[in-house]
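quick one: zinc ion bound model?
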Amino acid sequence: MTRKKLKLKSSAKKPLVIVSAIILIIVIVVFFYFNRVGELKSLGYSEEAAKSIIFKFKYSYIMDIGENETLNAAFISDDYIDDNLDKYAKIEYDNQEHLISNINKLLDKGYSVNEISLIIDKGDDESVTEFAKRDRVKNIDEFLSVDFAKLANYDRYVAYQELNNDDAETTVLYVNMDFDKEDYVDPLVIDDFDDYVLVNKHRQLSGKYVPDDLVTIDEEYVKADGEIEIERNVAKAFYDMADAASKEGLELMVSSGYRSYEDQEEITNTYLELYGQNYVDNYVAKPGFSEHQTAMSLDIASKSVNTFLESNEYVWMMDNAYKYGFILRYPKSKEDITGYKCEAWHYRYVGKKIAKYIKENNITYDEYYVMFLDD
Ligand SMILES: [Zn+2]
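yep, here:
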């Protein structure tokens, strides 16, 4: 009996050992799994990416590489391709919906990782997706290496350079300023108020573009009939500037400030009747194309001299306006770029930092905007 009992006991022990061993293995695996997920997360990977990395057996590979946003995106993407892994790691990340699928397509077309980084950096999801469908383009980096290049303008760069033979940087600058388009044809229409907005013959403010912080300029500074409104910060900067000028015996006045879309319609019609189309084309901004609608521009006058260009106030403004954040918006030497004949009286407020840069580098606001503010 005793023998039988013992035999039974030992045969019952076997499954227990196996079960214990299995449980132990599970515990160890689960422990390592969570431990590794934790390590990957502390490197900067998302939980979803960390799990995918472990299931694809890339834990050691990723631990060697460290943080990499493109890899993070790749591991959570349905478009992940194992063969492209090394290349994903070398491509600059950008937050685009079809990033990995587009990278795969561009790699298929034979683009290098550097070229793909440029394509992604200079495009948005839509333009990169379109570009990835095209046949391979050679020397893409010639234009896209320019800081402010835009992938969406690529074909225009090629066409413009063929016509004008400018270097890549000039070509990108001019095309981004729409020099390859007719004035007033197919302009960009802008609705939302923005202190830094660029308005020119290719960029039109809509009738809905209305500044929200207008103040009335103090009567003592106004050289015009009726009240003049302007954006609050511009008024402040103007008062500072006028006070500084007055210490040198000069009297800066304002002859025009904010003009609504409707005001500009009236002005255009008046000048058209008085002086004809040619004058209007050269000197009068059409509705929506006037910088005065931004409430960031002032026409400045001298209290004593009627032609501002001939006044001492003008000479003073040339040397000092930038210190108060103002720039001469349409200088004589830049008529080809602004598209406007020189207006000695018209100043745009852009803030001190930008005004200083523009003055020191002898450029226009059109160029500054395209190089630094346009996205
Ligand atoms: Zn003006």
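The domain at 188-373 is CATH 3.30.1380.10 (Muramoyl-pentapeptide Carboxypeptidase; domain 2).
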